[in-house]
Amino acid sequence: MKRATQATETPQVGRSVPRLESWLKVTGKAEYVHNLRLPGMLYGKIFRSSVAHGRIKRIDASAARAVAGVHSVVTAAEIRKLIPEPYYGPAFHDQPILAVGKVRYVGEPVAVVLASDPHVAEEAVHLITAEYEELPAVYDEVEAMTSKAIVHDELKPAGTFPDLKHLKGRKNTNVALEFRLRRGNAEKAMKGAERVFEHRFRTQQVMHTPLEPLVSVAESTESTLTIHTASQSPSFVRIEIARLLGWPENRIRVRVPFLGGGFGAKLYIKLEALVSVLSLITRKPVKISLTMEEQFFTITKHASTFRIKSGVTKDGRIVARDCEVWWNGGAYADIGPRVAQKSGFTAPGPYDVQDVAIDSYALYTNLPPAGALRGFGIPQLVWAYESHTDLIARELGIDPVEFRRKNLLREGRPQATGTLMKDAALEKVLERLEVLMDWQKPFDRGEGTVRRGRGIAIGFKACIANTASLAAVNINADGSVTVYTSCVDMGQGSDTAMAQIAAEVLHLATESVTVVHSDTDVTPFDMATLGSRSLFHSGNAVKLAAEDALKKLVQLKEELHLAADTPVAEVFRKKYGMRAGSVTGAGSFIPPYTPPDEDGQSDNATPFWMVGASGVELEVDTETGRVRLTRLVNVADVGTPINPRIVETQLSSGAIMQLGFSLFEKMLFDAEGQLRNASLAEYKIPGFLDIPEHITNEAVVAEQRNGPFGGKGVGETATFGVSPAIANAIHDAVGVRLTELPMNPEAVFMAMQKK
Question: Mean of the per-residue pLDDT values for the chain?
């Protein structure tokens, strides 16, 4: 569609602009890596381990190589001729491109068949056999602390990210990171408390299920490598591939078009290293597209166990909290240590508790790797501390809303890290949730075999700090504007938001701004699109770049003695004698950050806080245990909504995704670590009939003063409170407390029977 350049004084921030890419998507013209075909391209199919932990004794690929049409079969032996140490990872260099020496989980890539026809490759890969010397395995995160089954003999820190440079090399342990926080004296305060409550909660391993599975294509020459990939972190991919190959970064190009969902699954290195080495070995383009089943073996969400203990006064003031969290990272750390630390320090919840102890452990097990998934560990924590908080309120006979209100952190008060709360509208969010839920009005409790209940929960999250975003903004000779950013649009509407920010600075209509997709040869560095950082980090960078471009344009007008309101096209004609030239502004943004000390204390642990609360009304069928949500309310602090309509859809989508993790989804493993439900036929995700009839999404009036035009991220906020709100509502309806996810009909029914 053609978009005319249009100057305007109408504010662009706060407009519900239709997404700029919507026309391309609804007409089927949007570019995705899955649709990419290159001349002479080979397709790769992966042979995977059938044991959870074992030394590789033999790989027999002779039958596969004999299949007509097979180009080659590649194992770690061939890769190590090119890269002697083929290990990668954002926290530890622990994950091999293909298994080297031993396998650490069922489904680990061991070999790849390459053929010009993907069906031939698929046929051949089933003919590969392997023999293993099986080793003891560990699957539970708590057992991994003391298990004699050691997943990695030695851990080598990556040293890539500033906030992970404290990671240490370790041997003979499954503990990748142990984060410790101490504020005040929790043990002493607990002893002096009038009441003490202690509970343990668990969450299950689940999968991201982006409807566009992981896919990457690599094409190479003797001196260059181009990677086309569905990635949330193209800049990191280039850095890591350059390190693996020992090449300068300018020989590697990473292109990312649109993504069909990501949710954290497409971060860091997934298939990029594999297709790169395969292309360099074969001197042909190579494409690997995972099936939905294969995604279950690639990256998942951390299962967790959370022990929480609180000391409370009789009138409901929390005086101490002791938190111990175990994170099941699977066979490879991925970004798990950051989850354990960055999310771990919020384990006491959004409450003003001055005596706190936290121990948070990132652990290796022999399950598929776990990494970032929408919420970055926060939903696991909120599930526990908001269930625990509700239990305390009920035991003390205090209204759940009032109990939370009494204990909430206020503006200017120190969080457990010592960082002062700033621009976190916790009170506003809780108060608005109370109003929207009609909390003080009589509530229909149901009758007969159908009982009704309601529940609320509130949570918060710290943003990943000290990560950089760069951007460039071009004012072209005709007055149109192009934004260059490596922020990846994966359906969350970031292209539109970045265009709105640039348009606001330059007094243009958003529709006249073009956003160039991530291409490391063209777009500036951006750490990654993750953790709700992009609107804040990338948005600030785009704002700075637009301001820089505007400043240069004003200077050009002054040099040419032109009036301030001279149209851009006339400025360039005056300068060059024709329609030519451009003005380019650059922006770079990295927020200040203070690393935690040995007690986990920091005066600046995060550049901003995300706040989200949920309330539910539901029905429980006491004969079957089936839970049906009739109403879902999500309230959030997103600062200034840059695009209110996109904010609304992000809130509803985040809540519905967490609804699936709360009620249905669970990866089921047998005693040997074999996954039993690796397909959408057996792994239940929410369908239309599971969605509550009434969903309300609202952002409170707030401002993030250091955000672009007062804005901050929203993509994860509605995931925080859904699970505990449902558990609290089930308890309200039928008087049973579930402490493990998912809360499926069987779990609810068995809890009622036990009661």
Answer: 97
